[in-house]
Every structure is written in C-alpha cells, then in structure tokens.
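Ticket #731: bound-state structure for 1-deoxynojirimycin.
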Amino acid sequence: MIKKILLPALVLLTAAFTAKEPQPLYKNKNAPVESRVQDLLRRMTLQEKVLQLSQSYAGNNNNENNKDENIKAIPDGIGSLIYFGSDPVFRNKIQKKAVESSRLGIPIIFGYDVIHGYRTLYPVAIAQACSFNTDLAARAAAVAAKESKLSGIDWTFSPMIDVARDPRWGRVMEGYGEDPYTNARFAVASVQGYQGNRLSDPYSIAACLKHYVGYGLSEGGRDYHYADVSPQSLWETYMPPYLAGVKAGAATIMSGFNDISGIPASANHYTLTEVLKNRWGFKGFVVSDWGSVEQLMNQGVAASRAEAGQKALMAGVDMDMTDRVYQENLAQLVTDKKVPLSRVDDAVKSILRIKFQLGLFEHPYTTVLPESERYLQPEGKAVAGQLAEESMVLLKNLNQTLPVKNTIKQIALIGPMANNREDITGSWSAQGRSKDAETIMEGLQYEFGSNTHFNYAKGADFDGTDESGFKEAVAAAQASDVIILCLGEKRAWTGENTSRSVIELPAIQEKLAETLKATGKPLVLVLNNGRPLGLAKLEPLADAIVEMWQPGLAGGTPLAGILSGRINPNGKLAITFPFTTGQIPIYYDMRQSARPNSGLYQDIPTTPLYWFGYGLSYTTYQYSNIKLSAPGITKNQKLIAEVEVSNTGNMAGKETVLWYITDPAASISRPLKELKYFEKKQIEAGKKSIYHFEIDPMRDLSFPDAGGHLHLEAGEFYLYAGSQKIKFSLK
Ligand code: NOJ
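RESOLUTION: The complex was predicted; output attached.
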C-alpha cells in the first residue's frame, strides 16, 4: 500500500527535477524590454535589488598573480563596477562570475571615465568646443566608444556639460565652455557618438551626462564647494544642456557633488525627481558621483550614512557610486519602512532597463582582440588630428608674424611645452599613453623639414624660480629669426580637484617671455592649457599667439601646420579669457548694467582680453546682406534668416557663423545677447557662402521663468551675425 502511494509521488518529484524549466521571460531576447524588466524584478530578493543599486570598482591591480584575488574581492551580485583596467580577458572573468555563478545571472555594467578618448586621446572638451564642429566631436566619441567597448567598458562617465564661467575651477577643461547652447549642442553630439543608433549596437556604450546640476558654479572656483544657483540661472544657464542631452537619449546621468543653494545635488528631489524624471520623462538611471551619497553628511544634510542613503535614494539617485552606503543600509531602511520598497524597485528597474537595452544579457562578454586591432587605428588618429586642428585658436597676429615665412631657416623653439610628451595630452587621459603623443617639436621638424634648423632650449620649467636655463634660451633666440615660445599648464593643473587662485601663468614663465622679448626677435607664443589664462603680461610681449589647448595625441602636426601656413586656423573661443583673475566672473551673455558706461574697474580694463567667439584666421571674412524672410512673425510662424559671408583674403578657410539674439525689453531682464545657432563651413578664397538660420519662436525667443516654464512675449528682437544686425518683431 505504502509502495503504491510513494511510487507515483517519487516519479512526479523526479520529473520536476529533471524537466527543463522553461526559459524565464527575462532571458528571452525577443520579449519587450519592459516585460523582461518586470519579470526579473519579481524574481529578485531585497538583497539582490540593493546590490544592483551599488557600484564598486575593479581592475586597478594589474599584477597577474593577484587578479583572481581581485575577482574574489568584488561583492557577489554587484550591479556595476568602475573598471580601471583595460584587459578584456580579466573583465570577462569578472563578468563570468556574475553571469554564471549568481542566482539570476544578472550581468555587471562596467563604467569608466572616457572623457576625451580611451587610448586615442582627443583634445580636451573645452578645446573641442572651440572647433564648433559637433560632427567631428561625435565622430571622436564614436571612436572612443569602440576602443572602450573592446576593452570591456559598457558605459562612460561623459559628457560633462556643466556650463563653466570661473576658470579658477580646474574642471573647465572637461566641459564645453561658458555658453548653455554650445554645451547643449556638444551634449547631443557626444551622446550620439557614444551611443550610436542603438545602445545594443556592437560598439555603442552608454553615455552619462554630468554633473547634474550647477557644479560649474562652485564658489570661488573651489572644487566640491557650495554653489549658489538662483532658480533663474538654474533654468536659463545650467539646465538647457541637460535637457538637450536627455532629449538626445542619454542613458544615464550623474548627480553632482555640489550643494545647490542649500540642497546638495545628490539629495535634490526637485532636480532629480520632479524635473528629470517626472517633467522630462527620463527613463535611464541616475548614478551618484564618487562618494557623493556619503558626503551628504559633510554637507550637513544627513546625520548618518543610513540617513544619507535614504535621502539620496528618495531624492532620485538610483545607483550609489563606490561608498557602499546603499549596500550597507538600504535593506534595513526598507525593513524599517524608512524607504518604500516601491522606490527601490523603481531604481532597480531603471538600471535593468539600461542593461537590457545595452544587450548585456545576450552579449555579456567583450570580444577579445589584440591591442594592435583595438587602439590607435588610422581613422581614430585622423579624427584626433582634425579635431585638434579645428580647436586651436589664433589669438593674435601682429604684422602677419604668422605664418612663419618660408625664407626663415633658423627657428628658436623654447619653453617647457616645446618638447613635452606628458602634459600635452591633458587631464583625464583614460588609457592614453604619453608615448603615443606627438610633441610640438616633432610636429615642427616634420612640417618644416631638414632645411629649417630648430634651436631648442627648454628655458625654464612650468613653475619654480630656477632661471639657470634662460641663458641657453637667449642664445637660441639670438641665433634664430623667430622665437616659438611654448608655455602653459601641466596637465595635472586642470581637471578634478585642481582649483587655482590665479589664472595667470607662474611668474617664471612670464619672466622667460620678457627675457626673450628683449632679444628683439619676433615672438610667437604657443599656449598649452586647460583653462582660460590671464594673459595681461604675456600678450603685449607676443607678436602672435596660438591657443593650442591640450590637444591629446595628435597636436604637434596641426600646430605646425598652422605655424607654417599649411592650415588656416579656424577655432573660436568657447570661453572668455578675462583680462586678469580679478575680472572673474565675466562671460558674453551677462545682463546689461544699469549704467553701461559706468561702474568700471579703476585699475584694469572692464572688458576681457578675448571674448567668447573670438578667433583670427589667415584670411579675411566679410559679412553682408543679412536678411529675414519677413519683418515680423507670429508665435506659430518660423522666420528664415540668412547672411552672406565672403572670403576676401587669399586663403581658403572654415568660418563659423555664430547667430545671436537679443531681446532688449521683456518682463524680466534678458542677457545682452544669447547664442542660438552656429554653423561652420568651408569658403574658398574669393568665394562667398550663404549661411541660414531658421528661427523657431518658442525655442529661440522664449525665456524660462524661475520654475523653468517658458514664456514667449511679443515685442522687438535683434539678430546678429558677425558685424551684421537686423531687427524683427514677434506679434
Ligand atoms: C569623480 C568625478 O567628479 C566624476 O566626474 C567621475 O566620473 C567619477 N569621479 C568617477 O571617476
């Protein structure tokens, strides 16, 4: 009898164990992403969910013998890792553990700071902005994405689109300058470049807009500090690039370190949830900045790590970068009902959604190729060179000192940057290697060939007081017909945590320039830096000045091309160069003063040395015939503007037309002028080109109020392009 009952039960039980469990829905690549997300979420334990919201790091230990140890140290079930290594094999090993040994097999998303290239380094972002060539920037981002992907990176913490108006802040080099519209255009270009057509494409990586929001306003340029962001400037200046990046489909966004007028960015429910998620409908995920959850205690809004975690999560931060606050506190916070499970679930969903969209469940592993096939491919290097060329800005050219005449056979090449492979690459150089970088000297020697002799002397270091090299530098200058003096900043002087109290170069560099000027030889100053510099002392000493920025790997050749005249410089400043540090803040779209010709500085000029948009060329352009399709429009109509630009010089060139609009009288004061569109085109010598701009009233003539709601008011407006100006009305 017993045997009769037991046997069928045993058979059933065995069948249950041996029958193949149907594939869970979340593993079905053909199911819609949202169904997969829901299916996976309902299978997850609270602890598994908390780990998905946590990010740790791996890969900084390159010792072969320790690599497995390193894998063991990675918390089981972690949602994301910052991967400092570049070895795809090691990365795949870590991923294998997540995919094959964890209960649900959720792949890790590997992130990294790919800021201006991965191994092929491009010019730093502030330089890229000066190219006003968003197509090139997008192509550079696409190459960076491919190199990253082939090294195991699924996600870059880039672009940084913090509008920056204080060059004392070291992070100005990471963004696209002082103008909201320029930052917005480059935000879109980089998102498109990194993410390609689809996140699941083989060489796409997820982008991350950072650092949301107002970080560029850190008081006094001191990094990580309080930022007093008025609601009006939040909406007018700091939000537009983020909205553009979100509209372009950025997969993730990073909450900043900064305090936004009393509510830190990583605990700010208004910016993160009310605006980003609810108003803008952002469906990706928010990652904190490194430790910015824990730092809520330093900022005085949380008394414990648990409270910091609660505040950040409830504000809208989905993933906690590296400080383990979520990992150690969230489960308890849920149990104690201090955080609703529904909020944890939302955060988990936002992360899983991106992992599914990236195709990580189907393709968790990186294709392993030899380094020679991964990096520094000809196409990437060509983009790097082109972008470097277009981002350099000719700031001064007295008596046509440049191009260097081809009759000149002796050139003095002097300065700490002249033969420097380290600092030319710029900060945040990811997996870039200085050995891949071209120096200024190499570029020049190749360009000018063996008929030209370079008398090289370093002259002085970037800082310090050692003048012992001056003598050699003077001798080099005396033996030459022209001096190329290469000054600037070490790469570690800009980037994160590199604030400076003055933007002038150290006195030793200025003194070297003065000493060389005394030789009476024409002096060409080449600047390599990551922030606007105070050039009040240096500018009068130089006959010509080229701002080369930090061009990455391929700067020597384009600089040499500009100096020789093979290349016509075409970059324009995307950030104003103050006359001295004391002018900060100064930017082109300031509000009008109550007494425009009064209230001036008594000791220095009140205008900057070079405004936003400034940049010279070897040819001349004449702007004429600005026209509008109608003298006025209604709110639902579009207005087409055009302007004629003639190349009246002898050399073909690329000219960027910057279209500005002014609203002289409105219900709230408006900036002196606002950039609304730009376009760059090649114009042959003696030829002309017509540039167009379609004015969309809601986009181009409205302004936000302190709540971010747009207002479009009837009235008169002015449109500017170069020297041209035209009035129109909105009814
Ligand atoms: C801190 C920086 O502020 C941020 O820009 C970067 O992405 C993270 N660290 C990760 O390295």
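RESOLUTION NOTES: The longest helix spans residues 2-18.
TICKET STATUS: resolved
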